[in-house]
Amino acid sequence: MAFDISQLDYSLIVPDLMLLGLIFVALGLDLILPHSQKKLIGWVSVAGLIGTVAAAAASWGVRENFAGVLRIDEYSVFFKITFLLAAIGIVLISMDYVHRFLPNPGEYYGLILSGTLGMVLMAEANELLTAYIALELLSFSSYVLVSYAKTNLKSNEAGLKYIILGGFSSALLLYGISLLYGTVGSTYLPDVNTAVARFGELPPAFSIALALITAGLGFKIAAVPFHMWTPDVYEGAPTPVTAYLSVSSKAAGFALVLRFLVGGLLPIQDQYQTFFGLLAVLTMTLGNLVAIQQRNLKRLLAYSSISQAGYVLVGIASLTSNQEIAEMATRGMMLHLLGYVFTNLASFGALIAFQNASGGRELITDMGGFARRAPFAALAMMAGLFSLAGMPLFAGFVTKFYLFSAATRAGLLWLVAIAVINSTISLYYYLLVVYEMYVRTPPGFEAADTRAHARTMTTAAASPVAVMEGAYGTTAGTVMEASYGGSAAAMALALAPAATLSAGNGHAGNGHTTGHNAAHVDTHGSAHGDGHGGDPERPSIPWWKRDITADMPKEQSFPPHRIDRSLTLGLILFMAGVFFIGTYPAPVIDILQAASDALFARS
Amino acid sequence: MLTDILGPSFPYLSTITLSPFVGAILIMFTPRRSPWVIRWIAALSSTVSLLLSVVLMAGYDWQRAGFQFRERYAWIPELGINVGLGVDGISVPMVLLTGLVIFTGSIVSWKISDRPKEYFALLLVLVAGVFGVFVTLDLFAMFFAYEIAVLPMYLLIAIWGSTRKDYAAMKLTMMLVAGSIFIWIVMLGLYVQTGARTFDIEEFARLQADLPAMFQIIMFPMAFIGFGVLAGMWPFHTWSPDGHVAAPTAVSMLHAGVLMKLGAYGCIRIALWVLPVGAQFWAPMFLVFGTIAAVYGAFSAMAQRDLKFVIGYSSVSHMGYVIVGISTLSLLGLSGAVLQMFSHGIMTALFFALVGSIYDQAHTREIGIFGGLARTMPWFVGFFSLAGLASLGLPGMSGFVAELMIFLGAFQTYPVVGVLCVAAVAVTATYILRLVARAFFGPPNTRWSGLHDMLPNEWVASVMLVITLIVVGIYPSPFTNMIQASALPIIEKVGGVR
Fold first, then answer.
1. B235 cis-preceded (ω within 30 degrees of 0)
2. CA distance readout (Å), B470 to B55, B103, B135, B392, B436
3. Rounded to an integer, what is the distance from CA A344 to the centroid of its chain?
């Protein structure tokens, strides 16, 4: 791997250099711009990232080494574009949150970009020390980002835990790399491949090296039993950073693991199939089972992302000596990671929308009625959660199906069965969140966004209850309470602010509300009249003029949450990605075909 | 010929499947304050599907048995998923059933005024999935559509439902998705074991002779149970009564009328046709399950006090007849099972539409409380009585023809089962007639003197369903001809009684 420094072809790393320049632009703008205009940095970053995506796409089809340490081929370009798109998404969904809740918004964008640079280099690395340096670049950016909310106790705790455990696992990784160097004689992955193919029996030092490297990389992808940092760090970090860690950082870890396993260790892969299978089972199962218990939405998404890593580990276990099946498994993993990026960003984006509107709340039970007030964000959350559960129409189904087909062809039907059972279990806790958003409309849930409403709630509470009791009679009223899912008091309290809104403030679109209370009395009266048919005092209404909706409860109106433009744009992009991959994955699979060919080709 | 209007190369099947889906998307973009636009979009997209399914019925040539109205689309070529669409004599009645139930269901749902936008969008997506299952010949696409048909149920029941809706919605969704685990395994197992680089069902059926017998014997119960959970087969039926009771009217109509038939259809199309060796081995066990369902369901229905629970358990019982018909592995039994799927679907849709109309006014469904409703609600009682008579298999209505064929098939193979099923019919008659007598006839309860009779939209829906029941009961041969013609190849493959 000797190279001539004067002969380097810098055009290969143009996207990386553009990203580097963008970091400095972002930091520079932070120094120049006044605080009120710092959102511009976010938009500039997005523009720069789009340019970088274009530059990366332009290098599709190239298969070259750069300075012997980086390999630019379709595989690295695919992951490069994935990370850049994820970064665009994260910047879009962060903008409002960062300016509401975090200090020094300008540096935030710089750190996101530097982490992305680290990820891009991880995907390109063809040599272990370069991979290590890239991984550290990502890690250090992440350490700072996790503790970014300087005055928040949980954020500080999360940062401390992350840096200590992260440093420890980096040390393990480095020790493993050095032992590997000792047994193989080179850190250059193609050399490792050649040496490993020649091993008759694996030297003990080599096995120890692999164990240490697994521990180090397993930390990054949050595989069990290296996952203990994940729930606390995800919960404590600011939510956009959590999204960043769960999506990009994990995908980068897997990009590196795949490059290492396929580029370096493929000849001995069969020996480790059961080991990786076991790792996959532990990861999926623990992630899913513990997630059921969670009350904090960020923690639930943390455990769910642990189990998603387990599904990708199923793909790793399917890497066999049969190259066709191994390529299919690789494509499955890459497809799943791509779908996972869109899916998780949709979920986190919706969560950020909720936090922006509710002042930073993150418990599942706080989300009651979210679908009524922010229907688009709730739809994005639902789409993300159903995609994570592997339901059709969403990306998660197609990607998991592809992955499991590859695993079945590798002879791992038992593992696939466990994976499918886990998918079903995960549907349960995702439905809990969907239930909170769509079904529950708790009393006084507008209190989160009400300053004017609060004082009027109690006064009007009595009247709707009286109206209901009088109109329907007590027993029927009780039956109706139970059947329409809430106590009469709850409905009354929910009605009350809506009723007083029309009297008080000038909110739009609540012509329904007073009509609602009146409608209870009126329509019941008219129902009486129609039933009596031959009642002499009132003429009976002809059948085509009857109000057929008379018996049913009317829709209440709720003041909508305002969602920031950038966040809406991000959610639209993610949902488009989720639905596109979920319904028509063929073009993406064609792209992956080229990427997996590149990975398996000898350099 | 009706098919000449649009021509033979018009993509009937994809239009039928996608029309509700397009309707759902249009509804998502309709503003919330125009509920009548939403209602008409839903009605129109259901009408398109209904009309085309009638054309399908008229245009299907039963003498040329086999899949007709074929289409083919490449979806994921790398996995060999080229979605073939096609219907045969078993699918055509199912498609017609779905068209009728969704049309009447969406008409009956016009009265929903709390979030009608989400309601109709979810309902139409569900129906698109149901149509997809019936028309596709590719196992991947069938599973895809199956899950689309199950998932909206959670929100539909949990938001707009009634008694214990949260519990029922979660139980139903989790049990149905857990059942689909088995289908995953069968699907992937077939993909790899046959060595076919495709999920085409006909291809699997053609290659089944190469499948080792042990593989078929292991996979068959998984496939049958996986689909059987959706069919409400005992002992996996427990989601069904709770789900029926909790769901809003149109969702109950779809659920009992169509969704449970999806499961039975999967049993026939996948389990019987692709795994015949396994069918021969396991059929007696599932015959026992079906008989238990028929008898147990009937007795449970007799004990219920809530009107919807009676109908829910009666659905378990009638689907028990379907499972019996399938498991006898006889031509008469299988044909009777398919006709029973159609007939019961119509009948139960009618039941739920009627129960919905009275529940929305009275806010109770307790049978003992009602009394003498015939005086104030003559149309309602008339329709309900006709539905009840169809349920107990009165000659002249479609239930009789279907049950007769099933019992003949049972007597050909396992006479004891036949005896038990006929006894279950007697129990059905008991609870239906007692229900009708107690709730609708007799001295009027003044508490209900304020109730109005059926609303115009409910009346139209009920008339359509009743007419279907009677027409098929008097003149079933268009149905039975096409069903028997398509059941014959399956029975021959399984080596059953002709």
1. yes
2. 20, 19, 26, 14, 19
3. 2
Interchain CB distance below 8 Å, A476 and B364: yes
Interface of B with A in 168-227 (CB under 8 A): 170, 173-174, 177-178, 180-181, 184-185, 188-189, 191-192
Q: Please provide residue B90's backbone torsions phi and psi, each rounded to the nearest 5 degrees.
A: -85, -35
Residues with Cβ within 8 Å of A220's Cβ and at least 6 positions away in sequence, in order, are: A135, A169, A249, A250, A252, A253, A256
Gap between the Cα atoms of A112 and A292, Å rounded: 31
User: Which of A103-134 are b and which e, b meaning 16 or more Cβ less than 10 Å from the residue's Cβ?
Assistant: eebbbbbbbbbbbbbbbbbbbbbbbbebbbbb
Close Cβ partners of B181 (under 8 Å, ≥ 6 residues apart): A417, A420, A421, A424, B226
Quote the tokens at residue A450. 């009400």
Helix (H) or strand (E) holding A71: strand A70-72
Is B148 close to A393, i.e. CB distance below 8 A? Answer: yes
Convert the pLDDT of each residue in A35-48 to its tens digit. Answer: 888 888 999 999 99
A335, A401, A434, A589, best to mutate vs chain B, most B CBs in 10 Å: A401
Q: Identify the pLDDT of residue A602.
A: 62
Rounded Cα–Cα distance for residues B104 and B117 (Å): 18
In tens, the pLDDT along A150-207 reads 888 999 999 999 999 999 999 999 999 999 999 988 888 888 888 888 877 788 888 8
> Kind of pairing, strands A64-66 and B81-87?
unpaired
Minimum distance, in Å, between the CA of residue B390 and any CA atom of chain A: 28
Buried b (16+ CB within 10 A) or exposed e, A462-488: eebbebbeebbeeebbebbbbbbbbeb
Helix/strand/coil for A577: helix
Query: What are the tens digits of pLDDT across the range B7-61?
Result: 777 888 999 999 999 999 999 999 888 888 999 999 999 999 999 999 989 888 8
| Distance (Å) from the alpha carbon of B11 to chain A's nearest alpha carbon | 20
Identify the bridge partners of residue B83 per DSSP, sorted by sequence position: B73
Distance from CA of B256 to the nearest CA of A (A): 20
